[in-house]
Every structure is written in C-alpha cells, then in structure tokens.
Amino acid sequence: MKIAQVTPLYEAVPPKLYGGTERVVAHLTDALVDLGHEVTLFASADAETRARLVPVRDQAIRLDPAPLKSDLAAHMTLLTEVLKRADEFDVIHFHTDMIHFPFFERYADKTITTLHGRLDLKDLPGVYERWPQFGLVSISDDQRRPLPFANWKSTVHHGMPADLYRFSAQSEGYLAFLGRISPEKRPDRAIDIATALGKKLKIAAKVDSADKTYWENVIRPMVENNPLIEFIGEIGDHQKSDFLGGAEALLFPVDWPEPFGLVMIEAMACGAPVVAFRCGSTTEVIEDGKTGLLVDTIEQAIAAAGRAHLMDREAIRAHFELRFSATAMARRYLDVYGDLLARRPFAEAPLADVVTPLRPTEDRTFAAIA
Question: What is the pTM of this model?
Fold first, then answer.
C-alpha cells in the first residue's frame, strides 16, 4: 500500500522529550515500512523515520526557540502539502484531530483519522455530526463514550517497538511518576501515596505554561517540603529504561477520561507494574493483578503500591510484547486500511494487492488485543 501518515507539528517525530501522539506516529510509521509498505510521513524536518519524509516546517513547534509562532499557520501549510499529493496515496492517515475535514471532503473515502485526545468537549459533537463521512479510529473503547454516534471504524491500542526500552528484572526500590504536571494527571496523589508508604518517589514530568500556576501553588511546595520526593523534570526515550526499570511501580493516579496513557505500556516494557486509578482507558490497558493493580481510592492505591513489588516483572514484560508491540499495532491498522479500501470500487483498490496475510502467531496477538 501507499500510505500517508500526517502528524501534528507540536513535537518532533518521535519527540525529543515529552509527547504522546507524535511518538505513536513514529512507531506506527516505521512498523509499516518494516512490513513492506510504501509510507510517506508529513512532519517537521527534525523527524527521524524510515519512511519518505515530506518536511513541512523546519522544526517542531514546542521546542522552536522563535518567540512568535502560529500553530494554525503551520498546520495549514501541512494540510496544503498533503492535499497537493493526495492522489498519490491509497490511504491518508490523519492524526491531527478534525482540522483536515473541510479540506479533504472529496477524499474522505481514502482517509482514516485516529483521535488521540479527550472527546468530552462542548464543540466536538457538532463537528462529527457535520462531517460523518470521515472514518475514525479510537485509541481505547472508553475514549468513544462522549461521541457514540461518530463514524467509528475500529479501536487500535497503541504499541511501540519491543527493543525500545530495556527490561529490568530488579527494581531499585522507588516509585515513579512520569508524564505531565497537571491537575488531571494528579501528581499530588502520587506524592501522597509515596509519603504514606515512606517510599522515595521520582517525578519525571514537564510543566506546560498552562499548568505553571498549579505547579507553583500546589505541587512545588509538596516537592520542596518532602525529602522523599525527587523532581527530575522532562526526560526522553533514552532515559526511560533506567527511570522506569528502576521503579518498583509506576503510579498512574489520573483523574480524567484518559484516552490511552502511553506511559503505562512504557512501564510494562521495562517490567514495572502500574498502579492506576480506574479511570478512562486504564481498565483496557492494565490487566488487574497481572500487569498492574487497579484502584478506586487513595487508600486502595497506598495498599496496592505497597505490594506491587511482589508482581512478576518477567510476566509483565511478556504481556507487553504480546499486546502492545509496534508490529501488532501496525497490523491492526492494516486491517482498518483494508476495510477502507474494500469499500471503494474494486478496480481502484484490489484487496489482493493491499492486504498483508497474517501468520498464526499474529492471529493470536490480535485476539489478545481485541
């Protein structure tokens, strides 16, 4: 297949530091290339990819030092470049929310759009009612709940290369929080859990400008006044094996409809169990008692974090490889692409040319993911 992958421009592909969507696009793009498909990536020029790169901006927006930038203008340029080449592709896979809908109405039958964010926003229903012709992919079943009427084609859980992070059979005895300092991610809960247990907590997280008040007024005082807490700041992929592999458990105390939570499978790849609040996608990603522990209250979280060190780290890693590899994710998307092409005229998209057959072991992988 000739496949276009269209990513947001906020982070590099993959991100240099924090970033979820662009990281997933990087893993998916390379996995599709490895499976023998002709993939074109529309992204900023600092992308690292095995696909053909069409650079549409000199660098990703967030780490660009220019003081004045226009996110909208950058993405308008992105969409224009994709539109100019639209006839070159069998499938155009967007990861840019709904911004492309007005531009690609006549190409809707060759597009698929993965929605990566929360969908319980006031203005979203009107958009998906106005443009129902665009097929959508969710990253968890729970993510769909605010828009049950939308044109959902599949749920595809995230995946990543099995060799990206190093497995650690033994922890170093601390708890970990990785992600973003924000009210919905609840780093305050993580601090309370560690403090109640008398355990060291390492926090590797970025502070967005929108969350600086929360950091200054709520979290920073909790960090500075507690000798058990170590704030590291943002880290990149090259640091995560040590950070997550050394943890007894990853604390994922979210308090919002988390669409997926990539850090959960990053922890699993390193062998670290996840203590997660039952919220959003966590019940789909975590197998309670096998790859982590699901909780409903802070008291349950404290108890769970206290016994997480008893879990089988090798089994956690094996479960990650079965369900959340980049290849498994790519093959699930190939199913979606095949269904999309099957709805177009046969002469235009013969399935024999575009559907990749599955081996028996991969069938079992899909059953586990489903």
Answer: 0.88
pLDDT greater than 80 at residue 360: no
Q: How far is CA 252 from the centre of its chain?
A: 15
Give the Cβ contact number of residue 125 at 10 Å: 15
Residue 118 CB coordination number (10 Å): 15
Determine the pLDDT at residue 370.
Answer: 34
In this prediction, residue 348 carries a pLDDT of: 53
Tell me: the pLDDT tens digits for 152-186?
999 999 999 989 999 999 999 999 999 999 999 99
